[in-house]
Design goal:
Length: about 475
């Protein structure tokens, strides 16, 4: 069902650039994107980089290039002009200062002059006494005179939200339903830090309003911040957007998804050779399912089928096995030329010369049936390009009299062989069995070993067809005992 309103749907992905895109971030971006597309709305990329302590040079560019590599296009963002530029918060500092002043004037925020040291002590005390770690309100009720005095003396300060201490905040979240929070548990959030930069909370609310965001779709970890945000919207007299907090991502043991148990950077999945199409499909199913529980979806299909209603409340397990399965599915079923293009950088990095395009595509086709990722595909494909290496155990098989007889026989026959079709090679196999009196493994193992480097693997005619006459004979000749 589409969201019905006379207002244009506007959603945003608002990452703080950390140097990599977390898979949870990609899920947030994707769900926002899908909701926008489904409702003919706008999807905005906004960079929340006001925490200067965490500033990482190049992080913004990296984030943008990763979103591009994945194929999630935004309508407005740092590199796409829109009506609400700039879309990078560090370029909007004066805007937040202005709004902080409005809150000070209306009495919904106050100057706090407490030193770092005092706050640290306070937190320690609270921890010892097992109290909620919130600011104790020492500066909440300073008189105008006192504030003036301290400002004049240039005592460093922050600006805090004057959150009501009594009552409760009630709100609705599209996934969590009715949420009620006891106001006494909510902190007097710092809005402007001592360096003059805003915190996430102020900048986020101000921008969501100014950028006319209608739905806030983000991770569940932000659910507890909603009361502060609602208070901010109300203090400014602004309409509160709709909230949609996406379920947590979990490790298979149901702990919160962490680096410790596997990769969380989208970039590293791309580097390992997961296809963007597979990643998108897999990520879409982290917390969302379709009406008919179908699993394979292109981005276009997701755009049509996505609905907030079918997002679960409970955590979604990030199952790498499923991702491998899905990537394998895409590798096998996508256009071979496309897979070839995607695989190219991996082959080049491995130092494989792929100028022979016919051979290259044949190699891709045989390899993609057997491995889940492009980096594993290259490992597999190396056997068609590089000299084979044999373990001691394999060398022993190669040296056996039976193997040597087969190799000599094949070298002789192959040199005369006119036709390399599958049928012809199968005929040669049959002939070898008759002439040398060998069968089954006795025949297949030594040959596959000689030509492919392991006893099991693709069918012999396939291997031979890819290697070609010259290379096939060369590989056999190399193994003849001197
Ligand atoms: N900058 C926040 C983050 O990186 C955004 C949270 C939100 O979407 O409101 O998670």
């Amino acid at each position: 069902m589409n969201y019905k309103s006379d207002k244009e749907v506007r959603v945003r992905f608002a990452p703080s650039p950390t140097g990599f895109l977390h898979v949870g971030g990609l899920r947030t971006a994707l769900f926002n994107y899908l909701f926008a597309r489904k409702n003919n709305g706008k999807f905005i990329l906004r960079i929340e980089d006001t925490d200067r302590k965490r500033y990482i040079p190049g992080a913004l560019e990296k984030l943008i290039s990763t979103l591009k590599a994945i194929g999630l296009a935004y309508d407005e963002g740092p590199d796409i002009e829109g009506s609400y530029s700039p879309y990078v918060q560090s370029k909007r500092i004066n805007i937040y200062k202005k709004y902080a002043q409005i809150l000070l004037n209306s009495g919904n925020a106050y100057y706090c002059f407490c030193s770092e040291e005092r706050l640290k002590k306070l937190r320690e005390e609270q921890r010892k006494r097992k109290l909620n770690p919130v600011y104790d309100g020492k500066c909440r009720n300073l008189s105008t005179e006192e504030v003036k005095e301290k400002l004049k003396k240039k005592i460093p300060y922050v600006i805090r939200l004057k959150f009501p201490k009594k009552g409760t905040t009630v709100f609705y979240d599209k996934i969590h339903g009715r949420v009620e929070v006891d106001n006494s548990l909510v902190d007097d959030q710092i809005l402007i830090k001592s360096d003059g930069f805003p915190t996430y909370h102020l900048a986020n609310v101000v921008d969501d309003h100014l950028m006319k965001i209608t739905h806030i779709i983000r991770g569940e970890e932000w659910l507890s911040s909603v009361p502060k945000h609602i208070f901010l919207y109300k203090s400014f007299g602004w309409e509160v957007p709709k909230f949609v907090h996406l379920p947590l991502l979990l490790n298979p043991d149901r702990s919160k998804l962490s680096k410790r148990q596997g990769d969380v950077a989208v970039e590293s999945y791309l580097e390992k050779g997961y296809l963007p199409e597979a990643l998108i499909n897999f990520i879409a199913l982290l917390g969302w399912h379709s009406a008919d529980d179908k699993e394979i979806y292109s981005l276009k299909e997701l755009e049509k089928n996505f609905s907030l209603r079918r997002i679960n409340k409970s955590g979604a397990v990030f199952d790498i096995e499923k991702l491998n399965w899905m990537n394998g599915h895409y590798l096998r079923s996508m256009d071979i030329k496309y897979v070839g293009e995607k695989a190219k950088p991996f082959f080049e990095k491995a130092g494989i010369n792929i100028n022979d395009n016919e051979k290259y595509l044949k190699v891709i086709d045989i390899s993609r049936k057997r491995v889940p990722t492009l980096s594993q595909l290259v490992e597999f494909a190396k056997k068609f390009y590089f000299d084979l290496e044999f373990t001691e155990e394999y060398r022993a098989i190669i040296a056996e009299e039976n193997s040597q007889r087969i190799y000599s026989y094949w070298i002789k026959k192959l040199k005369k062989q006119e036709n390399w079709s599958e049928d012809e090679i199968n005929l040669l196999i049959k002939k070898t069995m008759e002439d040398l009196g060998v069968k089954g493994k006795e025949l297949y193992f030594p040959l596959r070993l000689a030509l492919f480097g392991s006893c099991t693997g693709p069918e012999l005619p396939t291997i031979i067809e890819i290697l070609g006459r010259e290379e096939t004979v060369k590989r056999l000749e190399k193994l003849i005992n001197k």
